[in-house]
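USER: Fancy drafting a protein?

ASSISTANT:
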Amino acid sequence: MAGTGRGGVPIGNKKPEAAAAAADEKDLRSYTIRLLPRLTVKVGDSVQMKFGAAKIERLFQTSKGVYINARFYIRSRDTRLAILPFISKRELFLAEATEIRCVTSIESKVTVHSAEEYFEFQNAAGEEDYFWRFYYHRPSGRIAHPGPGGAMPVICICEMPWNPDNPMMECIDCGELFHPPCVGMTRDEAAENAANGIDYVCSECNSQGAAGLPNQWQREVVTKNEATKLFR
């Protein structure tokens, strides 16, 4: 019987479910599990299972029962990547490989947004909502981007992806986002200025401003290397 790795991800190859794949298998569009209340799942759903959260990549039936190809999510805190400054506490990683699991292992549905959806609707996201943007490669701990079209732009002078756990300031002229420490400001100072209705203008826009109008937020911008250390 397979054990589970960090983050509740199944490991090992000796799984009784693996023998379920047979010549009589039939793909299903959806399936209703007889729970209280009943739960209907389909391909693409994110679900909570006995082994952890997973994404359903395939739903099929054989003479032995109904099964799914589950691609498990790994919690960021259970990886070595959690120390990276652009990794969020609400971020999950998709495992490289899929696992065959019995559909009765599903306990409930969970909400896992794309990074774009989470950033756009962050204030409306529930307490149990998560997001993902990277696949997790074992055992090296490398991360891989999901591919073209799903890229999140880098931000600030530190050129790191957005981490919703870290507060950002938006320049009212160019709309770019900056971490307060990366532009020589504490988070408390940034919060106080925002509370007082003081708009932020980045150094580049400020230097291009007409007649050099004073900017109460303007500070000497640190170098990229210094900003990276501050953000860490």
Notes: The mean pLDDT is 75. The longest strand covers residues 52-62. The radius of gyration is 23 Å. Residues 35 and 201 are 55 Å apart (CA to CA).
